[in-house]
């Protein structure tokens, strides 16, 4: 199964200047619990936004740079197709960004795990529109803002129709 996992603002904002637009500890915990033990596919810029590779996950990095030097244990490929080929058969895989990789992969995804952040943000990177004719919202869990979360947000799960 191919799952796209992202946190997005009201207008599908993902980030600006290769940085997240919010800090939501419960979203980080959810992301970790969902993706741990799996292969994660990302673009080079997304990978470089991390201080180091995320633990307990196999990183597949898509880059046009044929000489890209990634840390040991990371897999470097040059297309989405090659990234998917690098995942062992019958394994779940998570696409974690960025905007261009989401655009390339949304048509072949089986599931979308979205954290919908209740806010409008200035951004330069966006998640593709979720077409209600192709995707059905199957789960929605609201989380109000609190002392750890400056914004309310909703965990949403969509499955391809």
UniProtKB/TrEMBL annotation:
It is an enzyme of class 1 (oxidoreductase). Pathway: Cofactor biosynthesis; tetrahydrofolate biosynthesis; 5,6,7,8-tetrahydrofolate from 7,8-dihydrofolate: step 1/1. It comes from the Bacteria. Residues 1-160 form the DHFR domain. It catalyses: (6S)-5,6,7,8-tetrahydrofolate + NADP(+) = 7,8-dihydrofolate + NADPH + H(+). Its EC number is 1.5.1.3. Keywords: NADP, One-carbon metabolism, Oxidoreductase. InterPro entries: DHFR, DHFR-like_dom_sf, DHFR_dom. Signal peptide: none annotated. Key enzyme in folate metabolism. Catalyzes an essential reaction for de novo glycine and purine synthesis, and for DNA precursor synthesis. Belongs to the dihydrofolate reductase family. This is Dihydrofolate reductase. It comes from Flavobacterium luminosum.
């Amino acid at each position: 199964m191919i799952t796209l996992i992202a946190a997005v603002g009201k207008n599908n904002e993902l980030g600006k200047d290769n940085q997240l637009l919010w800090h939501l500890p419960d979203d980080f915990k959810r992301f970790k619990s969902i993706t741990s033990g799996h292969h994660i596919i990302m673009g080079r810029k997304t990978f470089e936004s991390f201080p180091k590779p995320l633990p307990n996950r196999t990183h597949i990095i898509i880059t046009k740079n044929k000489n890209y030097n990634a840390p040991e244990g990371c897999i470097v490929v040059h297309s989405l197709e090659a990234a998917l080929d690098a995942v062992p058969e019958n394994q779940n895989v998570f696409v974690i960004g960025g905007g261009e990789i989401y655009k390339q992969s949304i048509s072949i995804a089986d599931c979308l795990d979205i954290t919908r952040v209740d806010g409008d943000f200035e951004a330069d990177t966006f998640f593709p529109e979720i077409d209600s004719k192709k995707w059905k919202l199957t789960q929605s869990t609201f989380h109000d803002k609190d002392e750890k979360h400056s914004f309310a947000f909703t965990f949403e799960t969509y499955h391809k129709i």
